[in-house]
Design goal:
By secondary structure, this protein is mainly alpha-helical. The chain contains five helices and no strands.
Length: 114
């Protein structure tokens, strides 16, 4: 078998890895082995935190809805129950946007649910 020197491809791989870790601190931005490790950990955290962001947004919608409902004299949990009884199928994201952007329309939704 012939001998293969991987100088060009090794340099290219190292350069691409170090481009990905630009801005990292200490050896993680300059040393290949530490950079690989940093990329692996960053990818794992990015995956998990994308999931966490969805949960954070849902809880934010709940808090916004509850704050918008208090002046109408109803709590969040009673409002959701009333919506289900009235067969109004709006999701929490849409309702929180309506509550923030169009309070009159939100008041009509609350009145329909009551």
């Amino acid at each position: 078998m012939t001998r293969v020197k991987k100088g060009k491809s090794a340099l290219k791989a190292r350069r691409n890895t170090l481009k990905q870790v630009k801005g990292y601190r200490f050896g993680r931005s300059t040393k290949k082995r530490m950079a690989y490790e940093a990329i692996a950990h960053a990818g794992a955290h990015a995956f998990a935190h994308r999931r966490d962001k969805k949960n954070d947004m849902r809880s934010l919608w709940t808090v916004r809805l509850n704050a918008a409902l208090r002046p109408h004299g109803i709590s969040y949990s009673k409002f959701i129950g009333a919506l289900k009884k009235a067969n109004i199928a709006l999701d929490r994201k849409v309702m929180s946007q309506i509550a923030a952007d169009a309070p009159e329309a939100f008041a009509a939704i609350v009145a329909a649910a009551k």
